[in-house]
Structure formats: C-alpha cells, structure tokens
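pls ignore typos typing on phone
magnesium ion + seq
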Amino acid sequence: MKIDLIRLHHVKLPLKAPFTTSFATQTERDTMLVEVVSDGVSGWGECVTMEHPYYSSEYSAGAVALMTEYLAPRTLGVDVQAESVAALWEKVVGHRMAKAALETAILDAQLRQTGRSLAHYLGATVDRVPSGVSVGIQDSIPELIDIVEEFVEAGYVRIKIKIKPGWDIEPVRALRERFGVGLPLQVDANSAYTLADAGHLRQLDEYGLILIEQPLYEDDIRLHGRLAEMMSTPICLDESIVSARSAADAIALRAMSIVNIKPGRVGGYLEARRIHDIAQANGIGAWCGGMLESGLGRAANAALAALPGFTLPGDISASDRFYARDITEPFVLEDGYIRVPTGPGLGVEPIPELLAAVTAHVDTLVG
Ligand code: OSB
Ligand code: MG
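k done
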C-alpha cells in the first residue's frame, strides 16, 4: 500500500466539564487527527497527546513536529503495511503517541481496503465491552458523591476516581459509606506519591478497591514492586508501561498484578495486543485505558478491549461522558456496555460538519 498524502487535522474538542487529575486541569482536548490517503481511501488515527507534557513527555505540538519532520518523510510514497511500518521509524526514539496515530491511520486504511473490521483483525471475541468511567478530582466530597451517583445511575459498571495527596483516603471512605462495598471502585494517582507514602497508601487496603493505578513515578518500576509487598490493594501500572518490554519487566519485578493498556502510550494497537498477550500468558489482569478520545479513538479502543485477555472494565465510556457533540456517530451506553464497531477499519469516521466545527487548520503532507 502506498500512502499518497497525510493530512494533519488540528482540532480543539471542548470538554463538557473540566477534568482534573493530580497533574493538571483540562477544559478542552487540543490534538491532531491523522488522515492518510491511499488509492483514494482514507484511514484515520487519533493522536492522544495532551497540550502539555505533564502526563507523558510527549505533547501535541511536539507530535505535529515529529510527524512532519520525521515520520511523514519516512512513510510517504513508500510501500507500507501496518505490520511493518513501525520498523521504518525505528531510528526515532520514543514518541510512541505520534507513531501510534500514524500506524493506526495506516491500519485503518488497509482494513478499509479489504473490508475487515479492526476488532476482527485484532482477534476480538465479544461484540460489546463493559464500560467504566474515570472521575476527576472534585472541589468537595458532596460534589464527588453527586457526580458518582449520576454515573452509577447512567449504568457505568465501574468507577475510577483520580487521587492525589490530600484527596485520597477521605473520598474513598465517603464513596464506600454512600454506595457500599458492592460498588466496583478503583483509584488512579498518576504518579503523585513516593515510596515514603507507603504507610499512608496502606490505609486504602480496608476499602476493597479493585486496584490502585500508577501510585509512583513512571520509572519506579522496581519500587512499585516494593510497594506491592507492602499493601494488599492490587497495583496497576499505566505511565510505566510504554512497551511490551517494559510490561514483561514489570511482571518479572512483581510490580503490577494488573495492567492498564493504552494503545497511544505504547506505540499503537499492534504493540497493545502484544502486551495483552503477555498479560494473558502470565495471569495478569488487563483493561483498556483512555485519553479522552473522540469517537475515532474510542472505536479503536473498544475493538481492542474486546480481546479475551481484557479481564476488567476499561475507561471506555460513552461519548457524552466528555463531549456534548462527538465528531463521529456517538458511542452510547447500553446496559453498562459499549458496542464494538463492526464496519471496515475503525468502523466509524468523522462526520464532515462536526469535524469542521472543531478544526483549527489542516496541514497536508505530500512526498
Ligand atoms: O491516567 O488514565 C489516566 C486521562 C488523561 C490522561 C491520563 C488518564 C486519563 C483518564 C481518563 O483517566 C480516561 C478516559 O479517557 O476516560
Ligand atoms: Mg492512569
């Protein structure tokens, strides 16, 4: 397959409400959608970088530069396959989110040309996936309880709350008091603690949490193993897992018993599937993380999460969790589940008027 041109659609997607984590408050998503055109067929990939390098070292303006200066020139006019394109970019260290966006667009075009769905290609075994929701840090406990109540009533089958020092034990205790031990609940620290906080974090053990996600720094894999010995709440890694190699290391170091698999963070859906395979072979629980994707990324994540090793509900909520108007047909919650698209490729595409409404500008790259 020859890529004739690449379009970078620079978009700003306004969030319905601010989303606060231990590292930032976000009110919109500022990123790019990558469109490749091959033989008149378009393929799409959503770049999950954020506007700033606070979640990972990548950020949107950097991804645009990398795409323009390094990835596009190595890809345009070359005979490529989704399965081998990563090898063309091997000299480029890191930048996995940018690589994932372009690889996904190529994979989408390739699958559309052959009429195959991404879910089928990846090896999906179910046609819908259980839907969890990620709840940001709130200003007060009553506000947290109200928003969680809304999501429980909407049918979400699992709640994850963001935590940070000063907003951890109390909110968890309050949720247990209000919703009981039956509420499937987990917490995400986004690297806000150090091993010196182990004694404090152990207080979470009495609340029956499904897991604690990424309590320590991203390169503290060994220390997560130490923490795992000190607390009974299962440790799940997000930021630390950037490849199948780091997943294998984290398992060998007993640093995680559950893994959050985010395709963008690990360089794409093919590497994500390798991590899925490693987790499954080692009895490690897995779920599909999210980066507030539009319908494009959400469609692909739902396809991945339909693989049999995804043992826990992921952060794949309905479109209206973050967006008043998605840019594709919206994903809706059906009895706590999200339907896996069955059409060719991602199975969804941007609706031109809706895409235009959020597009700042488009760069066209040709060989
Ligand atoms: O740590 O999982 C995270 C959003 C942006 C950056 C990091 C994270 C998140 C989320 C939201 O938790 C997940 C979603 O898309 O619903
Ligand atoms: Mg996380």
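The first strand starts at residue 5 and ends at 20. The CA atoms of residues 112 and 315 lie 26 Å apart. more later
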